[in-house]
Design goal:
The complex is a heterodimer of chains A (301) and B (442).
Chain A (H helix, E strand, L loop, with lengths): L13 H28 L2 E2 L8 E2 L3 H6 L3 H33 L6 H13 L2 H11 L6 H8 L16 H27 L2 H9 L4 H12 L1 H16 L3 H5 L12 H11 L3 H33 L1
Antiparallel strand pairs in A: 1-2
Chain B lengths: L1 H26 L9 E7 L4 H17 L3 E7 L2 H11 L8 E3 L4 H9 L7 H6 L8 H6 L1 E2 L10 E2 L6 E9 H6 L8 H13 L13 H14 L2 H9 L9 H15 L12 H9 L5 E5 L3 H4 L7 E4 L13 E3 L3 E3 L6 H11 L2 H9 L19 H14 L14 H13 L5 H20 L1
Parallel strand pairs in B: 1-2, 1-3
Antiparallel strand pairs in B: 3-10, 4-5, 6-7, 6-8, 6-9
Classes of the chains: A mainly alpha (301), B alpha+beta (442).
Chain lengths: 301, 442
């Protein structure tokens, strides 16, 4: 009677596909076609609105890899991985371990508080931190003066030395809450008996953290790594609302370079080529991380 | 029943998608009534004072032209720049739109064949008497969009701008300082102000673009008008790597090293440094006349304006120009009406309204005008008149190449930060400039 493919007798097998149709159409219109169009545009010399465009093959791609601005932007993106991905994961692990132990009064309040930066629009974050870093009226320099550390006052966002770490640390501030909430949820899944057994055997908090919590959170760490790393590579709004790539090109990132080339300088083709390279880098990195996670899980099994 | 529900879901979701796709088209008016003509105008006068000027002019235009309705859309300049390029290519795009000057905006649109040449209307409306040929060349391109400053006229500008020095009259009076008349005096004054423990020049380079004005204001005192014209329009083998430009860069970097700018200027944005100046923290600031209206309200300080004075024995030239011009879409069905509208925007009446709003009009004020000029606005107006009469209106040099703005901002930040020397600076900018000339000649 039952044939497997028909779970609910009497219903058309097209029905399921029909349900998928609206979402698929939206995906097609607003994601898939634009990607294909971007890919196509990357082979042309085109200003974005003229009727005529010139096919130049791989011309844009060849120019790209000898463009010092593009190479600088990519290397800045790699630095951003440290601030957007690695630091938030470490801080998130630490905080979730601290928050998950015993019941703490006001636990949910703190959890919400730490997660808050993730909820705020990135442009708002940028504006707020631009004010925080303001050399004259910003709280950071004012605090330094207050505690007598006047010599540490900086023109943070305008300094060749400090602008990149300053903008990067905003990223850390935004991302760590996300990592923390992810890890807190993951910790609930780790059987409490592990911890009980460990403490009976005399393992202290640090050892429990290293040998139980971290390995138990492996899949959550993988998810956090992929999402935060993608965020680090495609960062745009934060740079747009704080330094616009300056001073010089010390905070220039790939996302901002795409905007500058394609929108401001009317070089759609060149911008599209940068976008394609960035997409490929993001896909490759995501694939690599997932591969690593799967191998790790394979070993455990 | 189930089937019915399913088909409803299907139809609804499909309708939803369709409506999402067609929403933009719905915004255009459904159908024009028999004799009414609608003129669609996009402008970037979004600030309150500016917007009121346009609204008044539009209302008066409608009264003077029965049966004409103006449909106005206002955007911030950056948004306008982004959308107008696509909109002007559509048959239902704006009939009239403000199009920014320079190669990447007006030049690109002319190249794309999207703007109407206005040459025929110059005689119709005697525009030759309204603005000088130097002003006209700022809104002109050859029909292929390649050569800037020559060829056909593609836009008319209602407002004018001049970059000079705003100063705090109270601070000057308290310390017995007077407005310097030579550049040498100006530099002596900077040192004196610094010694008095006051910030000589309120300045912040975080946003970047105003650093171009800071550099170029000094540059304009060292070079000739011909040079600035050649550089901007990319003609007569102009180069950027010149002793004069190096000297200007040297002066700017010396000022930074001497501490003449606001503390931590590298981390301060344009608006923030303006606010510092407005609140009395800083004796002077170098920026454009567009800042005047803001300094005339909401402050108890009194401000004045003067042109950055020339080196002794040399004439003063200042960065200046006319504001974002109005242009006409090439495919419009109402070309003559649109031209009439452009003429309306640069009428004596418009000049008066702009002056009332504290903005320097590009046109002369009517003889019998009752605009009060015994104030900061009057001083900016006088400065514009001075350079206009003396044929000393320079240029925003970032128009020179499509990427000049980015290059200048980045290289000036490096120069100010002490990363590069003045010689490195002019050499690095020259790379951008010569690359563009080469690309253009191919």
């Amino acid at each position: 009677m039952t044939t497997g493919s028909r779970a609910y007798p009497g219903e058309s097998k097209w029905k399921g596909l029909l349900y998928l149709f609206p979402a698929f159409l939206i995906y097609l219109l607003f994601t898939f076609i634009p990607i294909i169009e971007t890919f196509r545009a990357s082979f042309f010399d085109w200003n974005g609105f003229s009727e005529s465009r010139t096919f130049i093959g791989f011309g844009n791609y060849i120019k790209l890899f000898s463009d010092p601005l593009f190479l600088k932007a990519i290397s800045n993106n790699l630095v951003f991985i440290l601030f957007y991905s690695i630091l938030p994961i470490l801080i998130g692990l630490l905080l979730s371990a601290l928050l998950s132990g015993q019941p703490i009064p006001g636990f949910s309040f703190f959890r919400t508080l730490y997660f808050l930066p993730q909820v705020i629009s990135m442009v708002v974050v940028g504006v707020v931190w631009r004010w925080m870093f303001n050399p004259v009226s910003g709280p950071i320099n004012q605090f330094l003066s207050l505690v007598g550390l006047d010599q540490l006052r900086q023109a943070w966002l305008g300094s060749f030395q400090y602008a990149l770490p300053a903008v990067g640390s905003i990223g850390t501030w935004v991302q760590y809450g996300f990592c923390m909430v992810l890890f807190l949820a993951g910790i609930q899944r780790i059987p409490i008996e592990y911890y009980e057994a460990a403490s009976l055997d005399g393992a202290n908090g640090l050892k429990q953290f290293v040998y139980i919590t971290v390995p138990g959170l492996k899949s959550e760490i993988g998810v956090a790594m992929i999402t935060t790393m993608i965020a680090a590579l495609r960062v745009f709004d934060l740079i747009y609302s704080t330094t616009r790539g300056g001073p010089g090109d010390s905070t220039l990132v790939t996302g901002f370079l795409i905007y500058r080339s394609a929108i401001l300088n009317n070089r759609i083709g060149y911008g599209a080529a940068i976008a394609m390279v960035l997409t490929i880098i993001i896909l490759a990195l995501s694939f690599l991380i997932r591969r690593m996670m799967r191998e790790e899980q394979g070993k455990e099994a | 029943m189930k089937k019915f529900r399913l088909s409803i879901i299907f139809v609804l979701s499909f309708a939803l998608i369709l409506s999402a796709c067609t929403t933009p088209a719905v915004e255009t008016p459904p159908e024009e009534t028999s004799e009414e003509t609608t003129l669609v105008v996009w402008d970037q006068f979004y600030r309150d004072e500016e917007s009121k000027v346009i609204e008044t002019l539009n209302a008066e235009f409608e009264t003077a032209h029965p049966g004409v309705k103006i449909e106005r859309e206002t955007k911030v300049l950056a948004d306008l720049q982004m959308t107008v390029k696509l909109a002007l290519g559509e048959t239902d795009g704006p009939d009239v739109a403000q199009v920014n000057q320079g190669r990447s905006d007006m030049g690109a649109l002319v190249e794309g064949g999207l703007l109407l040449p206005l040459d025929d209307y110059i005689a119709t409306y005697s525009w030759g008497n309204v603005f000088s040929s130097s002003v006209a060349s700022r809104n002109s391109f050859t029909p292929d969009g390649k050569t800037f400053g020559q060829g056909s006229l593609f836009g008319v500008s209602p407002t004018a701008e001049v970059v000079g020095v705003f100063y705090n009259k109270g601070i000057f009076q308290d310390n017995g300082w007077s407005v310097p008349t030579t550049f040498e005096d100006f530099e002596t004054l900077l040192a004196e102000i610094k010694d008095a423990g006051i910030t000589p020049i309120s300045f912040g380079s975080l946003d970047g673009w105003n650093a171009i004005h800071e550099f170029s204001a000094i540059q304009h005192l060292l070079v000739s008008l011909d040079y600035i014209n050649n550089l901007t329009y990319g003609v007569n083998n102009a180069t950027f790597d010149t002793p004069e430009n190096q000297q200007a860069a040297q002066i700017l970097s010396d000022w930074a090293k001497a501490g003449y700018f606001s503390e931590g200027y590298a981390g301060i944005g344009y608006d923030d440094s303006n606010n510092l100046f407005k609140s009395g923290q800083g004796a002077m600031t170098i920026t454009g006349s567009w800042f005047a209206p803001e300094l005339m309200t909401g402050t108890d300080q009194e401000f004045g304006f003067f042109l950055l004075p020339g080196f002794s024995g040399k004439a003063t030239m200042a960065i200046g120009g006319v504001g974002v011009p109005f242009a006409i879409r090439k495919t419009t069905e109402h070309a003559d009406l649109a031209a009439e509208y452009l003429n309306w925007m640069i009428s004596p009446r418009a000049a008066e309204l702009w002056a009332q709003a504290g903005m320097v009009p590009a046109m002369s004020l009517p003889e019998d005008s009752k605009i009060e000029t015994d104030n900061l606005f009057g001083e900016t107006l006088l400065a514009w008149d001075t350079i206009n009469k003396n044929n000393a209106v320079g240029h925003y040099i970032d128009w020179a190449t499509p990427t000049f703005y980015d290059t200048l901002v980045s290289e000036l930040q490096k120069l100010l930060g002490g990363i590069t020397t003045p010689a490195d600076f002019t050499a690095a900018v020259e790379v951008d400039y010569s690359n563009y000339l080469l690309e253009k000649s191919q």
